[in-house]
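Hello forum,

I keep getting stuck at the same step: I have a sequence, I want structure tokens, and every attempt I make locally crashes halfway through. Rather than fight my setup again tonight, could one of you with a working pipeline run this one for me? It's a single chain of 82 residues.
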Amino acid sequence: MSESYWDACFDRPLPTREGRHLRTLRDAHDFIRERCAYPGHPLARATLSALHMAAQSGGSPDARRAQERTARLMRINRWGGH
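Reply #2:
Ran it on my machine without issues. Output:
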């Protein structure tokens, strides 16, 4: 992870079932890599790709897209809190 924007914050933290909050691109990337049994699944791969793109660009639209994809993956896998 050599890109310089891994510590960019999301607009709003994403809560996990365990009570942890994903606040940065790095938090989300690490969480998905730890949780995902099959990171090659198209949805997981697309989410990780969006996180990488946001970390490379540092742009708000990319970070927003990465946050939306992360939230969707968390919802589908029931990793997110209420």
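The first strand starts at residue 9 and ends at 15. If your local run keeps crashing, start a new thread with the error log.
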